[in-house]
Design goal:
Layout lengths: L3 E6 L5 H10 L4 E7 L3 H11 L3 E2 L3 H5 L6 E4 L6 H10 L3 E4 L7 H13 L4 E3 L7 H11 L6 E9 L20 H4 L1 H11 L3 E9 L4 E3 L9 E3 L5 E8 L4 E7 L10 E5 L2 E5 L9 E4 L7 E3 L12 H12 L7 H20 L3 E2 L21
Length: 368
């Protein structure tokens, strides 16, 4: 079996599940090297997962002729520089979300990838999992009729109580919309379709945050981004969605993601996960009924989007988590703040058409 060879840049908090799945689940990927600014992190990952190469700098990875795809797991405000350098070196890139810290950064990266005829894709890939894919089939098969609306909520009081290094969540490229919004918006555009324009209202409730988690307990962080964002999405098909993300509110449960149709309502699983319960309400039933998952990958399958990109690279089809999707999502995410500042409706430049849904394969870890 021909494998696509990848290298990871950034061995931070999220890297563990990528390392686990790339080396143990996705059979058409081979991890050939790792790199991190803190060399000890990369060395530990190399030893634990028996990775062949430890790169001193990311440029060594970019120059390695053995590497097909660079996986960018750096902090959000670093995504642009790392992805740009990898593309300039002629490598395909899969990046953690978001594509860039601004729409302008995303635009430049997409133009560069298209100019050099390189694949550019990225997280989240949770929409490829059993939960969202089952919801897509239910909607596409008419179980709720025509989609007419949606509501998405991500409510918490921030990450400074548990994350070991949470400052970046409140810096350029951070905030609840760019951090958690990609999961919800990516799910929405895959379930309902592209968005033509948005309106938004945003604010920063607290100018500073105090870290209470170790090892930086007591450190005071300045908040440079909006942390309370409400938005309205105007979908191409006429549906209207609302989204609310915040790091300012105490909340003890996971808020819901709901799709409203002309013949029923669908409660979608937490889009930060690959599986989860799905509930369907139709008027003839009178109450919600839990629906079975119809697709593979209900467990934490981060790296699924990379495996899909690798298969696309080998077969010539489009990757499902491709640059058109992450670019459209980035414009949506950043346009809420733009709308709030300019106090007006923002029509979008980007256009999005959904890729083909997932197909079940008898062999787990191998894609169509």
């Amino acid at each position: 079996m021909s494998k696509v060879k990848v290298a990871i840049i950034g061995i931070g908090d999220i890297s563990g599940i990528y390392l686990e799945n790339i080396t143990k689940v996705f059979k058409e990927l081979e991890l050939v090297g790792v790199c991190d600014l803190i060399r000890e992190r990369a060395k530990a990952a190399q030893e634990k997962y028996q990775v062949k190469k430890l790169y001193e700098t990311m440029y060594d990875a970019f120059a390695d002729p053995e590497v097909d795809i660079i996986i960018n797991l750096t902090r959000p405000y670093e995504h642009y520089e790392v992805t740009k350098a990898a593309l300039l070196a002629g490598k395909h890139v899969y990046t953690e979300k978001p594509l860039g810290a601004s729409f302008e950064e995303g635009k430049e990266l997409v133009a560069l990838a298209e100019e050099k005829k390189l694949m550019l894709g990225g997280a989240p890939d949770t929409f490829l999992g059993a939960g969202i894919q089952t919801c897509r089939k239910l909607i596409d098969d008419g179980f709720i009729g025509e989609p007419i609306g949606a509501a998405a909520f991500m409510i918490c009081h921030g990450h400074e109580t548990w994350h070991p290094d949470p400052a970046f969540y409140y810096q350029y490229g951070g905030g609840p919309m760019l951090d958690m919004g990609p999961y919800y918006v990516t799910a929405l555009v895959n379930l309902i379709g592209g968005v033509s324009g948005v309106t938004g209202v945003t604010k920063t409730s607290f100018p500073q945050r105090t870290i209470t988690s170790q090892p930086k307990c007591g450190t005071v962080v300045d908040v440079d981004v909006p942390t309370y964002i409400t938005g309205i999405l105007h979908f191409d098909n006429g549906a209207v969605g609302t989204i609310f993300t915040t790091f300012d509110v105490y909340y003890d449960t996971q808020a819901r993601l709901e799709i409203y149709g002309s013949k029923g309502t669908l409660i979608v699983p937490d889009p930060n996960h690959f599986g989860g319960p799905i509930k369907l309400l139709r008027p003839e039933d009178g109450s919600y009924k839990e629906m079975p998952l119809l697709f593979d990958y209900k467990e934490n399958s981060r790296g699924l989007g990379i495996a899909d990109m690798a298969k696309a690279l080998r077969t010539g089809r489009d990757a499902r988590a491709n640059h058109k999707q992450i670019y459209h999502v980035l414009e949506i995410l950043t346009s809420f703040e733009k709308s709030s500042k300019e106090k007006k409706y923002i029509p979008l430049e980007t256009h999005f058409e959904r890729e083909q849904p997932m197909k079940n394969n008898i062999l787990h870890g191998i894609l169509d």
